Amino acid sequence: MYTLLKQHGRAKRGQFETVHGTIQTPVFMNVGTAAAIKGAVSTVDLHEIGTQVELSNTYHLHVRPGDEVVKKLGGLHKFMNWDRPILTDSGGFQVFSLAGLRKIKEEGVHFHSHVDGRKIFMGPEQSMQIQSNLGSTIAMAFDECIPNPSTREYVENSVARTTRWLIRCKAELERLNGLPDTVNPHQMLFGINQGGTYADIRIEHAKRISELDLAGYAVGGLAVGESHEEMYHILDETVPYLPLEKPTYLMGVGTPANILEAVDRGVDFFDCVYPSRNGRHGHVYTNYGKKNLLNAKFELDDRPIEPGCNCPACRNYSRAYIRHLLKAGEMLGMRLCVLHNLYFYNTMMQEIRDALDEDRWPEYKKWKLTAVSGERTEP
């Protein structure tokens, strides 16, 4: 159940109660595609850095180790030793990113595994069955992630099919939740709004899926090639037509600035690989802009990544040491950068919630946008 605690303009401060704990929103979900955060970050680490929700990928876990294997081992929470909420995406984005390997039909999608080339079929029912076997807290509906740009005719047909698939997803998950051997009988379903960059299609789709009274709603198909301005415009147009009393999730977004702007437009949930991917390449987020620790200027820099930061990396190690680890190809360097970046994102979300609670959201947003842009001078 979602409770809207406060609003400032369209920005929402809420909480979402689940069988695996209460999520304070706005929230950034830490992405562990194959049931692990890339960069040697464990679920014990996730507790330490303030992670509320972990996100895993339906397609990747179906391919390896297999969702049936995970079910036999007690479900994803037990498998990866994580006692807080997990959201599993539907596999749709991965399926549709395999453009040369797939064929879309009304019943679903036929495609080939990127691992061993074997033929796989996934449709709404199969996606729900896989996610039910995983036992995640929140399951995402199976949809088509429409490439940008696409013709209006293609988008209209695709969105209509995505709506039909969503109805099938809802019916199948209700059936699965009622089975005696289901891992998580309280699994919730989020629907996904699509429509490319056509605002009117987005709005009509938002109205249609809102009628289904799902646990939450996502805006999908953004951050896939369109400009930030286009993304913000679509959010401005679409989010008001999604239920205020349900969480809104912007999929695959994004930079700190993207998140701040989307919170301002009424978004509750976020996920993105940026903090972990950038960390593995030595790029770290700070309140003085993003830094590349591989740069020679950090060779003798004995300060932490960000002075005052309370993450495991900053509490214990210098920029110079982490740079050395990265240059030497030591995994510890990547791990420390990923931990710092995830901590930075999780802390930013706490700051956002505090600012909304304390009626200082506009001031905080302005300050943070300046900070992450690198406009502030480091002391």
From TrEMBL:
It is an enzyme of class 2 (transferase). Zn(2+) binds at C309, C311, C314, H340. Binds 1 zinc ion per subunit. It holds the Pfam family TGT. The active site is at D89, D271. Keywords: Glycosyltransferase, Metal-binding, Queuosine biosynthesis, Transferase, tRNA processing, Zinc. The keyword Manganese does not apply. Its EC number is 2.4.2.29. Substrate binds at D89, S90, G91, G92, F93, D143, Q194, G221. Pathway: tRNA modification; tRNA-queuosine biosynthesis. Residues 10-369 form the tRNA-guanine(15) transglycosylase-like domain. Residues 252-258 are annotated as: RNA binding. GO terms for molecular function: metal ion binding; tRNA-guanosine(34) queuine transglycosylase activity. It comes from the Bacteria. Its cofactor is Zn(2+). It catalyses: 7-aminomethyl-7-carbaguanine + guanosine(34) in tRNA = 7-aminomethyl-7-carbaguanosine(34) in tRNA + guanine. Homodimer. Within each dimer, one monomer is responsible for RNA recognition and catalysis, while the other monomer binds to the replacement base PreQ1. Belongs to the queuine tRNA-ribosyltransferase family. Catalyzes the base-exchange of a guanine (G) residue with the queuine precursor 7-aminomethyl-7-deazaguanine (PreQ1) at position 34 (anticodon wobble position) in tRNAs with GU(N) anticodons (tRNA-Asp, -Asn, -His and -Tyr). Catalysis occurs through a double-displacement mechanism. The nucleophile active site attacks the C1' of nucleotide 34 to detach the guanine base from the RNA, forming a covalent enzyme-RNA intermediate. The proton acceptor active site deprotonates the incoming PreQ1, allowing a nucleophilic attack on the C1' of the ribose to form the product. This is Queuine tRNA-ribosyltransferase.
